[in-house]
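S2.1 Query sequence (RidA family protein)
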Amino acid sequence: MTRGDLAVLARAGVTLPPAQPPVGTFVAASETDGLLYVSGQAPLDPQGVPLRGRVGEDVDAAEARARARRTGLALLAAIASEPGRLSRVTRVVRLLGMVNTAPDFTAIHEVLDGCSELFDSMFPDGHARTDVGLPALPNNITVEIEAVFALAPQTPKPQ
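Output structure tokens follow.
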């Protein structure tokens, strides 16, 4: 069992939301050469509905930070949608975080720390991250984060 195993999540009191289907012509995650690229995910409420609004107008910074954490959970749910894949995650390599912001909101890095702190608690090796504030995101979601994860090799099934 690796640090990314569902059992580890359960012991930490973390519950994953339902995995989101892609909202376009792409897949939620793509694996190559020991890396898993996870498409941008949105923060979800407990029923799996995307959370919307612009930070600095509709949503305050503290709520946006909580939504970034929820987006991290959505990234993990996308990984877990394929059985056995979450247990192969060994570390977070990189995050690209985008925040739907009012023109004068500049604390984008503080919002995205909500996701980084979640991942650092599970995968303490640290990760690279880029933070971007944008005037709009798809369907007016508050936060979108994409990620790259390192994976342990898949264990062949005995025949």
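The mean pLDDT is 91. The chain has one domain: 6-13+33-151.
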